[in-house]
């Protein structure tokens, strides 16, 4: 590890926001920097209580072990924000930045009210100069607003530097992403003070991240890079999902097409898995934010371009729901359907913007009874997401996949959990009503084996059980 040449000693770090980013980020920080005391604060008492308990508020592989190792030594979770802020040399702001639900920019712009309230609190309570690290995903030039609020309210003799340090972890792989990041971005002011602040934060990361992966740049580039990275990632999935619709209409197989595309070294194989649609708390919110910024800058063609990535995702989710109904003789009223997987991706209990919610609501609207199983999502969360105050009104949550599938007409895979691949599908088939349908929204199962068992299989980007003649669309394109 390099020496801290910034002239700004970093002994204590405080992070505001003990969520999916603040919790794992600070846990890894504490693990890798035993010489630094890390305190994560949040105004949500329940969340802090959970971070201090045996059952953490979020499920993330490998996280529990790290928390157990560091908690009480150099990692602390607290609701007592003021002393932690006062004592800190560096303050991470890792609060949520959701899409605005009302007012100017409603439905698109990022709501910075939580970030602003953090800035106001910091300025109100801190008696010594601080470096503020913008970890939350924010619109370009947000650091300017934060520094404005801080300067306008700062106590005498106290100065602030604001750095942009966006987080690129993905849920389900957060510990690995934090331990071995592709890159760490640090954006700051070109002034001498700004550069010292960048060096201080850089020194913290250098405890475990190779220097060449720590990229220093101007603040606005750093802020925009985060939005751009998410937009590019989501765009790839929307692109392969668009191709999946063409595959279904023509008889091509999207897995084969994705493989062919991914073998081009200029494109690479990642993020080409066609699916029921992408979800999660970030992609939609961040692209909407980019669309809003572009519109505000009168870049309407740019805004329309990125909006299409979201529109394609909506189309994909709806298309999947409609295919289920069509395949089951155009009606699912009073039919029982098992949904396997409710989280937005595997290895997390997070359901924010999960495509499973969209699919489940579609099936409920069509009059089906749902039997839902997810290995990590809590029952109360599923009911909340489906606007169901209670179980029983068309929705039953099961703790066992075989129980969920029993006596149902169809099985729908909405999340790519590894364990779904290893289930005994003969047993599941035997317990279902016939004809037994299986809709694989994640393309994770062995479809030939399922067809052999007797299932009517339907999946994304591929037709099943049709001859070459039927798949041949020569008649329609005139060849
Ligand atoms: N979830 C991810 O995978 C991910 C990855 C990269 C970046 N991000 C970005 O990081 C930010 C945080 O995301 P998250 O998923 O951790 O959100 P989250 O909702 O899980 O956590 C945010 C926490 O901040 C707390 N909070 C809000 N305002 C506060 C205040 N004024 N004082 C004290 N606590 C306050 C909330 O109580 C909550 O516990 C967002 O901007 C998000 O876009 C998220
Ligand atoms: O080929 C793929 C890859 C992903 N997905 C889906 O896309 C969504 C998002 O997946 P992923 O990006 O792995 O998870 P997130 O936790 O949402 O992480 C994204 O959003 C974070 C928040 O900004 C960023 O930090 C990460 O870099 C970025 O990957 C999930 O529904 C996945 O199932 C697909 O359908 N096909």
Automatic annotation (TrEMBL):
Protein name according to UniProt: UDP-glucose 6-dehydrogenase
Pfam family, one: UDPG_MGDP_dh
Main enzyme class: oxidoreductase
Recorded metabolic or biological pathway in which this protein acts: Nucleotide-sugar biosynthesis; UDP-alpha-D-glucuronate biosynthesis; UDP-alpha-D-glucuronate from UDP-alpha-D-glucose: step 1/1
A biological process from GO: glycosaminoglycan biosynthetic process
NCBIfam families reported for this sequence: NDP-sugDHase
InterPro entries attached to this UniProt entry: 6-PGluconate_DH-like_C_sf, NAD(P)-bd_dom_sf, UDP-Glc/GDP-Man, UDP-Glc/GDP-Man_DH_C, UDP-Glc/GDP-Man_DH_C_sf, UDP-Glc/GDP-Man_DH_dimer, UDP-Glc/GDP-Man_DH_N, UDPglc_DH_euk
PANTHER family: UDP-GLUCOSE 6-DEHYDROGENASE (PTHR11374:SF3), UDP-GLUCOSE DEHYDROGENASE/UDP-MANNAC DEHYDROGENASE (PTHR11374)
Cellular component per GO, a single term: nucleus
Ranges of residues in domain UDP-glucose/GDP-mannose dehydrogenase C-terminal: 338-447
Family listed: Belongs to the UDP-glucose/GDP-mannose dehydrogenase family.
E.C. number: 1.1.1.22
Purpose of the protein: Involved in the biosynthesis of glycosaminoglycans; hyaluronan, chondroitin sulfate, and heparan sulfate.
Superkingdom to which the source organism belongs: Eukaryota
Active site: 282 (nucleophile)
Binding site for NAD(+): 17-22, 42, 47, 95-99, 136-137, 171, 282-285, 352
Entry keywords, A to Z: NAD, Oxidoreductase
GO molecular function ontology, one term from the record: UDP-glucose 6-dehydrogenase activity
Residues passing through the membrane, by range: none
Reaction(s) catalysed by this chain's protein: UDP-alpha-D-glucose + 2 NAD(+) + H2O = UDP-alpha-D-glucuronate + 2 NADH + 3 H(+)
SMART domains attached to this UniProt entry: UDPG_MGDP_dh_C
